[in-house]
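=== RUN LOG ===
request id: a7f3
mode: sequence -> structure
chains: 1
length: 96
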Amino acid sequence: MLTGKQKRYLRSLAHHLNPIFQVGKAGVNDNLIIQIREALEARELIKVSILQNCDQDKDEVAEELSKGADAELVQIIGKTIVLYKESEENKEISLP
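=== RESULT ===
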């Protein structure tokens, strides 16, 4: 579990990132979760945007993605979700 201080630090790092995944009409599926898991291993911190045509609630989407990818939910801001997972091979972010 991340502390408040760690989440603040990760939010500051995520600020300049662009979303690399989009959740649309199909919602969250296994393929998306696999891709997010791989992206987290490579980058540790990613943004996912939720499109207007997504039928699921943003909180549900965030929970499914964080559980499925075994990642920490850093923030939900508007229709954007920030996820963090410590990389096993490409560790670049050191938490305070």
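=== NOTES ===
The mean pLDDT is 92.
The chain has one domain: 4-84.
=== END ===
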